[in-house]
Amino acid sequence: MKTFIYFAYGSNMLSRRLRERTPSASVIGTGHVEGRRLAFHKVGKDGSAKCDIQAANAVTDKAYGVLFRVAYSEKGGLDSAEGLGEGYREESLLVRRDDGTQITARAYVATAIEPNLRPYDWYKGLVVAGAMENGLPRAYVERLRTVDAQPDPDANRRKQNEDLLFHSHHDERQGPAVQVPVAGGVAMRHEVIHWSWDGRDLSVGLSRAGSGATILLLPALSSISTRRELEPLQARLSHSFDTVAVDWPGFGDLPRPYVDWRPETYQAFLSHLLARVAVEPAGIVAAGHAAGYALHHFARHGGGAGRLVLLSPTWRGPLPTMAGGQRALFPQIAKAVDRPLLGPVLYRLNVNRLVVGMMARGHVYADPGWLNGPRMRAKLAVTRAPGARHGSARFVTGCLDPFSSRDEQLQAARQVRGPVLSVFSETAPTKSRLEMEALAALPSVSTLRVPRGKLSFYEEFPADAGEPIRAFVMGTLDVDGSSRRQSDSLNHAASGL
Fold this sequence. Notes:
Blueprint: E1 3-8, H1 15-21, E2 26-34, E3 36-43, E4 49-55, E5 62-71, H2 75-82, E6 88-97, E7 102-110, H3 121-133, H4 138-145, H5 155-166, E8 178-181, E9 187-197, E10 200-209, E11 214-218, H6 231-237, E12 242-246, H7 263-277, E13 283-287, H8 289-301, E14 307-311, H9 318-323, H10 329-338, H11 342-350, H12 353-364, H13 374-383, H14 388-396, H15 406-415, E15 420-425, H16 430-440, E16 445-450, H17 457-460, H18 463-474, H19 483-495
Parallel strand pairs: 11-12, 11-13, 13-14, 14-15, 15-16
Antiparallel strand pairs: 1-5, 2-5, 2-6, 3-4, 6-7, 8-9, 9-10, 10-12
């Protein structure tokens, strides 16, 4: 069979996307073209931006992509799908493979460009998913995530492409691991796991580092939260443990389908993690609402908890916290954000650079300048992932609260049989801190109050929590006796960092 080598650098990097057009396509590797850079500026048939690899001034610029072997008999279909002669031309490019060798491959390069165009969010999602599926460099994937995208006003086209995006994997195998260094030289291995809920196949990000007994790390649920906010803490703990950090369905940095997210979803997902991903861990570190779900789980299911660490534990969403309780209007707001045309507008009015910056300064980070530059771009990229608005709106309106009252949370904490450590900042927002203090008053809960930070102190000041958590999970801290002695002992451990 006569074949040719095709270099995909846009949405065709996602194997399912390409195989719908060329069923014979098989991956032979990844590589990059030197002296080119990726740009989202090709004028698509739908009027939005598509990818191009344009010539760059610097020879050090690189455009990454995936090499496929394709049957020549299918080339006509690929030419038609790509719009050869109608916005793209074909070029033969020299691609440097990961092993340093070079290979000549065919690629489509844009002839019709418009610098001010933006891609649709589903198209950007396909590009990011393809890059992750094939293990392109982490920094390159992160740049893709920061590309500004827009909602597609055509509901049918959006659904068709989101279905392709969200059903790219149909089995329970893990996606390819991408190993990258983080602070301190720790190798972080990034993977994608798959889980089904409400008839949808969900892709969820996971990061591993270290060896030894397992610690499961669960990030907060919020519009800007992912497992990556735990990376600095995870890197410290990985010197003593096998650490596994997992995003929550409906959150994280991957595209998310529309699902009617609800507390039962997260209860079931945590059960899945503990049965299949992190079986009987030595410890669980859970932030924000994740702490509430961990308490809920172990109050009802008992053993296998190991030691439980709660970081800035919360049980009530932002709107109910501000209003002093749940209101009938709040679930209606979440439903409005689900709507195809109105929803994206409402979401953007409430989740944008200005609002994210204001909320971060007021509630999340102590340093007003901490969320600037690359950090802000990364957080905004999380909010712009396809489908991000559905989980975010439910969290903000209290529809994902693990408990309906403080008493319910405290009762769950009393029922947890294993050791529990609550860690939060002395300067956390007042209403949230009062809830944390109520939990800290329980004799069964040990407490560490760190002197710096706000709700996300562990991201901003990871050293304040790293060593006390390590010692707590290893059982080398004295957690017996009065709560005063416990707090003194834990704060002494933190001060020694």
